[in-house]
Amino acid sequence: MIDNKKVLFSGMQATGELTLGNYLGALKNWVTLCDEYECFYSVVDMHSITVRQDPAELRKRARNLLTLYIAAGLDPEKNCLYYQSHVSAHAELAWILNCYAYMGELNRMTQFKDKAAKHTENINTGLYTYPVLMAADILLYQADVVPVGKDQMQHLELCRDVAQRFNGIYGDVFTIPEGYLGKVGAKIMSLQDPERKMSKSDENANASIYLMDDPDTIMRKCKRAVTDSLGCVSYGEEQPGIRNLLDIYCACNGKSTEEAVKEFDGKGYGEFKMAVGESVVTVLKPIQERFTQLSTDKAYIDQIIKNNAEKANYYAQKTLRKVQKKVGFPERIR
After folding, report:
1. Strand, helix or coil at 8?
2. Same domain, yes or no: 48 and 166
3. Among 200, 223, 255, 311, which one carries the catalytic annotation?
4. What's the rounded Cα separation, in Å, for the pair 215 and 288?
């Protein structure tokens, strides 16, 4: 707890481009959380290199992601927005926690199995111990809550298990984090395969809307979105494509599903898709404009990077020093 506020930690990888799903599902809802929580939002660039990256491209994407955090409404004075790689305590704590996580636990991680299947030429140790680094990310800041999707829940459970194991040996060292149970953002699915989540890494260019897509591209992708042959706009399991477009429309406009279905009663899919596209363009326009403005102010972004790294390091080192003392490392002479 910091200044009588519970601590919240989350982050996004600096790979690919943020999608509409990333914004409506997470980033949009992060904006209001600083009123209730002390928030740490990391650009998790250390996690990113479990898959081979072009160095120059990774640096560019990391900066763009941090800039998008701000453009989307995260105030860098109220939230700690920082690069994971700028806080060495993440790696130092991860090594210690590796010695308290069990092989059997890591062997059960389904995300490792999925990623290993996709990257058979590069099944590296970092990919295997990824969940331990994620545990270090969370535990460094004594996070009380962590917004996690279904695909990351298994990692949070591992984090809790390792923290409880460590506390059982050394006393009350780590806060045991809970999954964030507040307002949940819309779960946005692929425009081309509405049974799967919209993804940064989808190979089909028409499957995802990216935050920096221009209006024409957004409209084209919405027009090409998969629907069905039923010909009516309703929110049913038998119409996953229409259901997904309704979720997007409602998330962008703040309308209920019932209101949206009533609005498009008797109207065709073409008109419906146009309305969805226009609502997305309207939501993304101010973010894009703010991003462009921020990107030209190098000194401002550099200062935020410096200040927020200092803040993150301050809190991370408090936890790390405590852990180092507990495990018996010699005290550092300062």
Report:
1. strand
2. yes
3. 200
4. 11
Token pair of 61 as six digits: 């994407």
180: nearest Cα among 23, 12, 19, 10: 10
Helix segments in 180-214, DSSP class H: none
What type of residue sits at position 169? I
Task: Tell me which residues of the chain have a pLDDT lower than 50.
Answer: none
pLDDT given for residue 268 in this prediction:
92
Between CA 122 and CA 127, with CA 125 as vertex, the angle to 5 degrees is 70
Q: In terms of C-beta density within 10 A (0-12 exposed, 13-18 middle, 19 or more buried), how is residue 73 classed?
A: middle
Cα separation, 145 vs 262, whole angstroms: 37
Is 140 found in the same domain as 86? yes
The CATH code of the domain that includes 286 is 1.10.240.10
Active site residue 115: yes
Q: Does 255 lie in the same domain as 323?
A: no
Per annotation, catalytic residue among 5, 6, 115, 311: 115
Question: Rounded to an integer, what is the distance from CA 149 to the centroid of its chain?
Answer: 9
> How far is Cα 187 from Cα 1, in angstroms, rounded to an integer?
30
The SS3 assignment for 71 reads helix
| CA–CA gap between residue 320 and residue 249 (Å, rounded) | 45
> Helices 125-140 and 110-118 meet at what angle, rounded to 10?
140
Say what the pTM is. 0.91
- pLDDT tens, 36-49? 999 999 999 999 99
128-157 exposure pattern, b = at least 16 Cβ within 10 A, e = fewer: bbbbbbbbbbbbbbbbbbbbbeeebebbbe
